[in-house]
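Per your request, structure below.
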């Protein structure tokens, strides 16, 4: 009997320790934290604004370059714009359009876009235009600058013989065929 009474007391004491707190909610809800405001401070210095703009352009150029590099090894196909095959202007048309930048579809029309830049001022993301045909007097090839290292300009393009590749403007053929460079970013 004492044993049963001890067990009963033990159960009652344990159940009294685990009591559930009663929570009451009012019908009115109060917000105790005000929404935060994002304050963008602009440095009034034109130099700082120019640097910020250059950083954005460089970021956009890197994104476009990476899009173009994703097509490395793609075979050449006149008028093509897919991994199954593409031409030089198709490569750039697709790479830029993936980042909401519209360019004309053909290289000789593309050459009229943007601002012309001197070869020594070429940067990543600039376009290089070439005339590879001796018979035709208009631009018929385009490439995208992917790097400038020690006066060497490397560009990605779709070669008729090797597909989408990275070449150097130092190569005799491309240096000879080069017409102009433009900046569209």
């Amino acid at each position: 009997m004492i044993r049963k009474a001890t067990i009963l007391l033990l159960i009652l004491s344990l159940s009294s320790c685990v009591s559930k707190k009663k929570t009451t909610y009012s019908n009115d809800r109060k917000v105790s934290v005000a929404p935060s405001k994002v304050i963008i401070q602009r440095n009034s210095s034109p130099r700082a604004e120019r640097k910020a703009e250059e950083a954005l352009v460089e970021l956009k150029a890197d994104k476009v370059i990476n899009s173009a590099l994703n097509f490395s090894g793609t075979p050449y196909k006149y008028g093509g714009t897919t991994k199954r095959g593409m031409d030089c202007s198709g490569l750039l048309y697709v790479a830029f359009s993936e980042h909401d930048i519209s360019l004309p579809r053909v290289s000789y029309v593309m050459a009229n876009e943007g601002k012309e830049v001197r070869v020594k001022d070429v940067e990543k993301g600039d376009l290089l235009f070439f005339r590879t045909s001796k018979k035709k007097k208009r631009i018929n090839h385009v490439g995208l600058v992917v790097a400038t290292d020690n006066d060497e300009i490397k560009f990605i393009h779709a070669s008729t013989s090797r597909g989408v590749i990275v070449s150097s403007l130092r190569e005799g053929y491309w240096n000879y065929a080069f017409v102009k460079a433009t900046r569209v970013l």
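The beta strands are 81-82, 85-86, 115-117, 127-130, 141-149, 152-159, 163-168, 178-183.

Regards,
D.
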